[in-house]
Amino acid sequence: MNADDPAVSLTKPPVAVEDNDLLLPGFVTERISPARSTAVAARVGIFLGVSITMCFVTGLISHWIQHPPPWFWWPANPVWLYRLTQGAHVVSGVVAIPLLLVKLWAVFPRLFARPLIGNPLRLLERGSIAVLVGSIIFQLVTGLFNTAQFYPWKFFFTTTHYAMAYVSFGALAVHLAVKLPVVRSALARPSAETVSAPKEPGAVSRRGVFVAATAAAVVAGVAIAGQSVPLLRRVSVLAPRSGEGPQGLPVNRTADQANVIAEATAEEYRLEVGVGEAKRGFTRAELAALPQTEAEVPLACVEGWSASAHWSGIRLRDLLAAVGEYRGGDVEFRSLERSGLYRRSVLPQTHVVDADTLVALRLNGAELDLDHGYPCRLIAPTRPGVLQTKWLSAIEVLT
C-alpha cells in the first residue's frame, strides 16, 4: 500500500505542535507548510497588535470629538491635529488587513489541534479567538466600506463601530494574556530556528512569509495614505478621495443631495445669530461687509481623507461680538438642511474663541461653491468635516 494513500495518512498518530503540548492529527501535519509556525504568527501578531491598538485609540478620539462625553476636551491647535489622528486611524486599519490575513493563514492548522475543547484555559483561549477574529473582521470590513461611503447594512455605522471597537480590543487583550507564554517562547528562539529554510525545494520560508506580510502592509498603507498625505496622492490607488472637487476640495454631500439649493440662493436668505437675548439676522452682503480674515485650515473627514484649504470670512468671535456680549459656553450651528444627523453641530468654547474659527464665505480665493456650503459655512480647526456645518441658517450661543 502506498504511504501517500489518504487512508494511510488518516491512521497516522497525532504529532505534537511546536509551541505546546497540543496535538495535530497526522494527516494535518503532513500538509502543513513549515512557514505556518508560531514564530511567524507571533511576529506578525506583534505588528497586527500595534496596528489595531493605533486604530482603536485614534477611533476613540474621533468618536469622542463627534459625540463628546462631559469630561472630554479636544484642543483647537495645531490645526492639522485631527487630520493626523484620523489619517492614522484609517491607514492603521488598512495596514491591519494583510497582517490579519497572514496571521490567520499561519494559525489556521491549529483549529484542528487536539483536544478540541480541553481545560478551562484552552476554552477561554478558543472563545477569545472566535470573538477576536469575528469582531476584527467586522471592524475592518465596515471601516473599509466607510472610507468609500458604502453602507450595505441597516445599522448606524458610527455607534456600532464604536461599540465593536471595545469588543475587539477586549478580546485582543484576553488573547494576549492567554498566549503570552507561547509568544515569549517563540520570540526567544534562535533566529536560525524561527526563520529556518523550507523543508521542500520551492516551498516558502518563514522569513519569506514575514517579509511578504511586512511588504503587503506597507503597500496597503501607502495605497490609502494619499487621502491624508499630499505627497503620496499619486500613488494612493486605493484612496477614494484624491483632492478633486469644486475649488480643489472633495465633497461628500452636495447641495442637491441636501436639497438646499433654493433656500441657499434665495434673495431673502438671512443668517440668524443669537447671543443671549440679543438676536440679529445677516444677509450675505452684510456678512461680506464685516471685517474679513483668512485662515489655512485643512478639511478632514472621518473617512480618512483630508485636504489643505485657504478660507476667508468672519471670525466667529467677531460675529458674535457684533450681536452681543459672548460670555462663554458652547455654540450651536444649524444648517438649511431639514433632515440628517449632521444638520446641526455644537462647537466647544475652546474652538469658539480660536482665531482660526470662521464663518467662511470664500474658499481658495473664490466665493464658496454651493457644494461647499454657500452662502456660508463653519470652519473650525481640528474638527471632522461632518461637524463643519454647511449652508448655515442659524448660530446660537447655548446657555
Automatic annotation (TrEMBL):
Keywords: Membrane, Transmembrane, Transmembrane helix. The chain crosses the membrane at residues 40-66, 86-108, 129-151, 163-187, 208-226. Residues 263-398 form the Oxidoreductase molybdopterin-binding domain. InterPro entries: Mopterin_OxRdtase_euk, OxRdtase_Mopterin-bd_dom, OxRdtase_Mopterin-bd_sf. This is Molybdopterin-dependent oxidoreductase.
